Amino acid sequence: MSIKISIKSNIGSKSAKNYVLFCSKNFNIINIKKYIDNKEFNYINDLLKNTDTKKNLCSFDLSSKKKIILVNVKDDLSSSDVEKLGAEFYDFIKNFKLNDLAINAKSIKEKPGRNFIGRFLHGFSLKSYDFTKYKSKRENRQIKITVLNSNNKNFNQNNRKFKALEEGIFFTKNLVSEPGNILHPDEYAKRIKTLKKFGLKINVYDEKKLKKLGMNALLGVGQGSIRGSYLVTIQWNGLRNNSKPLAFIGKGVCFDTGGYSLKPAKFMEDMTYDMAGSATVVGLMKSLAIRKAKINAVGVVGLVENMVSGNAQRPGDIVKSYSGKTIEILNTDAEGRLVLADAITFTERKFKPKFMIDLATLTGAIIVSLGSEYGGLFSNNDKLSKQLLNAGEKVDEKLWRMPLHKNFDKLINSKNADMQNINYIGGAGSTTAAQFLQRFVLNNTPWAHLDIAGMAFSKYGGAINQGGATGYGVRLLNKLIEEHYE
Question: Which fold does the domain 2-150 belong to in CATH?
Answer without folding.
Answer: Leucine Aminopeptidase, subunit E; domain 1 (3.40.220)
